[in-house]
Amino acid sequence: MNERKDPITRIVDAVANTEDVESIELEPPIAEVVDPNALETLIEDSTASELEVQFAYRVNDIVVDDSGRVQVD
Q1: N or C, where is the chain less crowded by C-beta within 10 Å?
Q2: Is 47 a residue whose pLDDT tops 80?
Q3: Is residue 16 included in any domain, yes or no?
Q4: Is 18 a domain residue?
Q5: Contact between 15 and 60 (Cβ < 8 Å)
Q6: What sign does the CA torsion over 44, 48, 52, 55 have?
């Protein structure tokens, strides 16, 4: 699977792992914080070599880069 695929699922999994909870326990739903379609399109269609999308979700700062890598701080 290409790492650029399904960034929302990877974000949810990364946050749940960081917070040591099940992904279904995360509130609010990620789609209420960031537009999943816009994020996926931005990452998949990017021609930028150093693209980073940053946003806050719950108590975490999320960074998704042009390769689709997700970082949760």
Answers
A1: N
A2: no
A3: yes
A4: yes
A5: yes
A6: negative
